[in-house]
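Field reference: "sequence" (input) and "structure" (output). Example, DUF6566 domain-containing protein:
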Amino acid sequence: MEEIKIMSHTNTEEHHGYTVHGTSEKHDTGRWIGSFHIVKNGTPTISISVIQDAFATAEEAASHALYRGKQYIESELVQAS
């Protein structure tokens, strides 16, 4: 029986006082999509799937999601404070 990987890769960084996780999931198409998850002081703030972009590898999708998460922090959270 073939093993199906659903969640494969996670990148984590600190950015402007937030922790951002970029993760990847295998889509039904066989391509990988990413999601970012933002935490402040141990409390989850937001999770967003980056579904417009699909990648051939889990690592690429997680890296892109991490990048998009840092963009979100800068444009939506830091600017708002």
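Residues 58-78 form the longest helix (21 residues).
The mean pLDDT is 89.
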